[in-house]
Please model this.
Amino acid sequence: MNYDNFEASFTKENKKLKIVLAITILISLTAVIFQFFDRRFFLYQGGSIFEERPLAEEICRLAFVGLAGGVPNPHVVHHEVIKIAEKDNFSMTIDKIFQVKSLEVGACKIVLKSEGALTAFKIKLHGSDKNPFYYKLIQLDEVSAKEEI
Model:
């Protein structure tokens, strides 16, 4: 074997390896850059975790149950509403609460079964840092079946 031919084939093979190495490095670098700047979006079906008002729903439930039972909690029910409830004797039996849903900021809806009838109430909340639990029930409106349809 001739040394000149061996050197030429060795040099050719080195050039091929260098090209393959350069291409591999470029592809790897590109993949790392794309991965670093890639934005990933996840779809989550249980959106209630990401909603901002789970506290409002719980305050709605506690305030309504307290009012319906005749023992309103002053920490979650506004004092004016307590006066009106005592004056008008607002009380009802709750068989089962089906849903408490936050409608918008400062409002929620409670759907329940009372004395065999399905009823719903829209509750307005007042949010303030002065309140012990941030929200207090400030208005309670019964939703009739005609309004829902």
In short: The mean pLDDT is 84. The longest helix spans residues 3-37. The helical segments are 3-37, 54-68, 79-88, 145-148. The radius of gyration is 34 Å.
